[in-house]
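Entry type: protein chain
Record version: 2
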Amino acid sequence: MEITQIIEKFKVAGNPTEIKQLTCGNINQTYRITMSDGVRYILQNININIFTDPVGLMNNIFGVCAHIKAKLPEEERDRRAMTFIDTKDGEHFYRDDDGKCWRMYVYIDAISYQSIEKPGLFYKAAKAFGEFQQQLADYPADTLAETIKNFHNTVSRFADFKAAIANCKLPERLEESKDVIDAFLARESLAHVAVDKLATGELPLRVTHNDTKLNNILMDEATDEGLCVIDLDTVMPGSVLYDFGDAIRFGAATTAEDDPDTSKMALDLDLFAEFVRGFIDGTNGSLTQTELDLLPEGAMLLTYECAIRFIGDYLNGDTYFKINYEKHNLVRARAQLALLVDMEKKLDDMRKIVKG
């Protein structure tokens, strides 16, 4: 089906005057559409190989966006929250004759950063993610669909890790990574930091973004103020520790997550402190004391989770993560282990920073 025919299925005015493909690929296709009335939209193909429940996925997104919009001044709603467009049949997405699922939302004129290029940028990103949490603090998280089952269930991830060890058909990989495997097995208790406390209610179930990287925030081009959190496909029930922890794991590390030189890998306490300030300012009193107390453990938890997923994939023959060379996943796991070890050494410092 032609893109123009897909556009016609949505509740938009006028006709397309420009169609620009932003990303290429057989599954994920993203287009920026300019209509004759001057309004621009994003038309996007949903990856149903990963997100197998597009109905639940889009119900999540529509519900969360409507909740955020209701808390914003009317004049800010179109810029500070994503506006998704229904089809002319009143559905949240359109399924074409080939089974592909398409969605449309209003294009927001702003910028996103791939790395922390300027002083203070990490604070502003943290504040935006914190505000996202605060805006959704009263949203009934248990009504959301789980778009990727057990995505941050670290007890389940640990079971997958052990299964990868037990079922490994590459003995040379098992032997080569024995030190890494032993280090992660010895830290099994980390897998229970959030899951157990969610089960007992010590940690509240919240709406979580689950992919809190810098480039998932649209920022004002003039001020770098965080405007809108985007890429909501992984929005689902979880713990605030997930969002905080993944942002720290990725953004406050001193080198890339796959740097083969583990001596370069450490936690930058200054960046940690900057993110803590922004996140706490953004959440604006909506976090419980238990959540605040466990933020440092959240950083360790998500580093550990990512690490056991990398090494598990290595033992499974690199079937999940895209790799650039044969030992890429092993290198990733070693880098994350180095970060985790440094976090363990700095845990008291992290706790002091959170307490202020």
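Comment: The chain has a mean pLDDT of 95.
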